[in-house]
Amino acid sequence: MQRIKIALLQIAPVGSLQGNLEKGLAACREAKKRGAEIALFPEMWSNGYRIYDRPVPDWQAEAIPADGAFVGAFGRLARELELAVGITLLEKFSPAPRNTMILFDRFGREVLRYAKVHTCDFDVERNLTAGEDFSVAALDTACGSVQVGAMICYDREFPESARILMLKGAELILVPNACPMEINRLSQLRARAYENMTAIATCNYPIGVPDCNGGSSLFDGVAYLPHLAGSRDTCILQAKEEEGIYIAELDLQQLRRYRETEVHGNAYRRPQKYGLLTDTTVRAPFVRKDRRA
After folding, report:
1. Is the N or C terminus of the chain more exposed, i.e. has fewer CB atoms within 10 Å?
2. Over 80: is that where the pLDDT of 289 sits?
């Protein structure tokens, strides 16, 4: 059986880079003790996503290099524990910082670096540099190689994010998050998993962190099984509001069998009909005037 345990580190930041480093390393150690093979942090763990209600230069000054000591400590721990780690940070970048996730494999090798493409430009995230692309990487695990991609928070709101990752071969999408996980956002994650036959693991901050309420989740994307008369609930785990390390188990073998036979994902798409999606001259009548091109 190919089952992968994913630790959703639904933990609260402590107010400093050093404090978050120490708490994050301890959380990874605990996740390994509980059998996890992948540990995922909430969005922008290096500074706890503390970018609201503060002067922009203050939080921009908290940006750290992707190849610096903070990130490097998690790479070394990944190798020590033989645990894949998805660490998140406010990355020092020009002309402005990026909202980034770096995935280390169990050998401590960086296999994926993703910067948030859909920055929340209607708010303070307009002061970030947006990422350029969605990437998928082969992650070596005890169950073999798994094709992993990433989205960050608001990326979830755009079907194209997960669709591109699916087309690039993603089996599992990791989603660091920092916002209220209410029914509509959870429904988006469920839909992205269902329509792409892709597992989606999301890690949020717990209740008590401003504008967050826990609810970290894993949707496995498998809606139908041969022995069931109807569809099944694709939600494998939805965490409570409270701080904690939540372990979700993904049946990778089941997902792969399902993708070989079902009708979603890329099975019956008609991309020649979708040209309007990439026509940048088209404007829907309800789109905000400050929208990016």
Report:
1. C
2. no
Place of tokens 């755009």: 158
Residue among 166, 240, 250, 161 nearest 201 (CA):
250
Both tokens assigned to 65: 């290099």
Q: Is 206 helix (H, G, I), strand (E, B) or coil?
A: coil
User: Among candidates 135, 89, 88, 80, which has minimal Cα distance to 111?
Assistant: 135
| pLDDT given for residue 290 in this prediction | 61
pLDDT for the residue numbered 286:
73
User: Buried b vs exposed e over 250-261: b needs ≥16 C-beta within 10 Å?
Assistant: bbbeebeebbee
pLDDT for position 293? 46
**201 three-state secondary structure:** strand
Q: Can you give the residue ranges of every domain in the chain?
A: 3-278
* Alpha helix (H) residue ranges in 65-135: 69-81
**What number is the average pLDDT over the span 159-163?**
97
Q: Is the pLDDT of residue 117 over 50?
A: yes
CA dihedral of residues 40, 44, 50, 54 (deg, nearest 10)? -170
Q: Give helix then strand counts, H and E, for the chain.
A: 6, 12
The answer to whether domain 3-278 has CATH 3.40.640.10 is no
Res 288: pLDDT: 67
Q: Quick check: 213 and 241 in contact, CB under 8 A? A: yes
Structure tokens at 92: 């020092």
pLDDT at 118 over 80: yes
SS3 call for 188: helix
| Mean predicted lDDT score pLDDT of the chain | 95
